[in-house]
Amino acid sequence: MKFFKSIVLFVCLLVTVVSKGQVLPVRLTTEMAENPLAIVENQPRLGWQLVSKESDASQVAFLILVASSEEKLNNDDGDIWNSGRVNSNKNLHILYSGKPLKNETKYFWKVKVWNQSGKVSKWSRIASFRTAPLESDLNPTWIGAITKADSHLPEGRNYHTATFNREKKMSFINASDSLARRSIILRKPFEVEKAVKEAVIYISGLGHYELTINGKKVGNSQFAPLWTDYDKTVNYNVYELSAKEFQKGDNVIGVLLGNGMYNTLAERYTKFFVSFGPPTLFFKMKIKYNDGSEEIIKSDRSWKYSKSPITYNSIFGGEDYNANLEQRSWNKKGFKDRDWKKVVIQEAPKGVLRPQTAPPVTIQKQYEVKTVKELKPNFYVFDMGQNLSGFPTIKVKGKRGQTIRVWVAEGLNEEGTIAQGRSGKPYYYDYTLKSDKVEEWTPKFSFYGYQYVQIENINYKEDKNKEFPTLVDLKSNFIYNSAGEAGSFACSNEIFNKTHELINNSIKSNFQSVFTDCPQREKLGWLEEIQLNGPGLMFNYNLQTFLPATMQNISDSQRDNGLIPTIVPEYVIFGGDFTDSPEWGVTGVILPWMYYEYYGDASLLEKYYPIMKKYVDYLGTKATNNIVSHGLGDWYDYGTHPAGYSKNSPIALSATSHYYYGAYLVAKASKLLGKTEDFEKYNTLASEIKTAFNAAFFNEETKQYGTSSQFSNAVPIFMDIVEPKYKEAVMQNLLADIKEKGDRLTTGDVGNRYLFQTLARNGENETMYKMHNHYDAPGYGFQIKFGLTTLTEQWDPRKGNSWNHFMLGQIEEWFYQSLAGIMSDPEKPGFKHFFIQPEVVGDMTFAKADYQSVYGKIASSWEKKDGKFILTVQIPVNTTATIKLPVAKNSEIKIDNKKVRVGFDEKAQKPVLELGSGIYTIECTI
User: Fold this and answer.
1) What's the pLDDT at 19?
2) CA 121 → CA 66, 79, 656, distances in Å?
3) What is the per-residue pLDDT for 266?
4) According to the model, what pLDDT value does residue 166 have?
5) 30: which DSSP letter?
6) 641 burial via Cβ count (<10 Å: 0-12, 13-18, 19+)
7) What is the DSSP letter of 817?
8) Does residue 256 come out as left (phi exceeding 0), alpha (psi in the -120 to 50 range) or beta?
9) Residue 196 pLDDT exceeds 80
């Protein structure tokens, strides 16, 4: 968040220095990232945003220089590539076309542009990118305390299938103190005798690592590298170090290793047991000296290891730390490591070593104690004020050898103690003191979803009972991915504002290495949440470099027969519909399209087209006469029945509709990519599925689909499966059911989006307003009334398990696209052209939203005041927008106090404006 706020501030400052009439390129990116450190493409794509003081500004040409050094670039010497003037309005996805790029090399570039008046801009600030090494160049050597063979950890992926049967646990699994599952510290002394110019580090510590140079942490990641299917892909991280990180003479590399998802444990709570091997490290550092020479330091037999003070670490069960096992200054020079042991060379993970291009998970916020209750003497429960994913930081004072146990949970039992029954137990942190001084500790390798902290046998703040240690301070650390926020929303309706907050706190809590379902019980990447909440996710967060990693995980998890499993990475095989459900698997087809729509980037469609095809073909093998009948259906649909499998609507209707949607999107992709034969095949298939769907599920007499449920009727309207002549009748049946239910929904995890968007896209925003503007269940208002700070798994929190799920958060799409009215144009993806068409509903008096698109900030803010509708819009340079105003045809319309003539959209029955870039205030009589 801080990163993107700084971008916005930086851009605003730049606007102030742009000369009148000029356009200035800012925020230069290479492969969608600023100054990336591991570009793997031979021809990376370059891009920039534009700012200008004048309205209706655009680019007509550009010139790019790429150089081998900053010095050359400052002298306008593009020794690697001088594009010359290129007459084009394109400022994104510009294919590098210079000299062949070398591996492990840093390049510098800048750009200038010409605007619509022919004026040339100043040069942009200098940007850079570094190319990644080949895996053969890395030549990785993996080291650790024990080989996989000697650890007796299970071999092969078959082990994943047995992870739920606790009776089949192997005895080694419980030996968390053994070297097979023990956190270790590794060190490597080295000497620097010459002046350092720079150094580059390539590192992967599995499951997770913390790297230090001379005792100082490198990077800000909390759980690096990000999770993958380690049999298919292993991420490594890249860091640049400056000369100041080194000291003349002795230096020390220190690495702390933990288990993560690579090596789970069975003690305490666990969702599954899986191991890809014991903790392991790959490391390479290339030091460049001022005299032009280089030195490489790698992981090899010269490193040493010792057990760390972390005596237990499990991603599911918690973490224990014994401060008495600390070895002071172990990662600094002068430490005597004679008692340390030589590392062993380990078997390399099976997966391909790839640079991590997605952003790291970091500590984003910290919360103080909100309230505290002493339930009985020396027994405290702390309310940290926010349910979140993370871990506590404690400051304690006591006697050497005393242990403090810290329990965390989302909710409380009736007597006020923490309740882990729904979210997975037992989960806790143990800290053992080393002295009588104040000590501070933060866990490294485990996190949980919690709001409350329970600590027994302590004093709080004051040393009342000398038998117990004293908790001096307690903080709660909120961790989530550092991709950055892309949008904001607010309006006059407090339920909607609180709903937006609830949903986003849940998204953040589950925005980890992957988008998880919950941050406590499972921590698994259930796929349907990504595509069903996709527009809301993209409006709120910058996912340009995150979603490509998601697609890599999907590709890695796809079975040979084409099945995309419900969870990715597939650390555990659930079996049956919990492994194979079309609404989940089709994410692999939908996600590349959403990426293209929001970012104007077809690279995921191009790269993963075979994955998309293969999945649709797989569904074809499961179909009978084009009807697919398996899966979870509209999961967690609402009613008096217990939540779970679809009860209100036929599972076959849900599965077949998603089979159709997948085929339709593959046909659309094949047309975009120029694959004529495939287009004919999948376009025909989609038509045949549509025909079969309507024959199987549509009743021509009643004009109802399936069971006449909201999902049954909404999904064929949304997916355009219903025949045009029946659409209005089906829509009226849908509206009648909503009204009969008291303006309440009956859809579930899958159906919510289709219901919400069917209403929004067919002029029924008032129905949406009534459906959500209340404090009853089902509804977001009930959760607000319940006093929650995150969205829960069920509409009634008392019935569900997790209190930190974002799967029901599909209303975010309506907030941005309907209430604020920011709508992309499918014909010009990436918001090159877009619509602003706000809906004024209920008694709302204002709504506003902004979105940092790939072209720049888009904003829409409207209010009803003194008989007028006032709309302020912001349109980025080099884009255009169509404004559709929610007023009558004969309304008087002014832009910036000047009366204007406008067009009229007969279909939408709204006045229409076409505008170029700039900030405009549009005033209309109501």
Assistant:
1) 60
2) 17, 21, 54
3) 86
4) 34
5) E
6) exposed
7) I
8) beta
9) yes
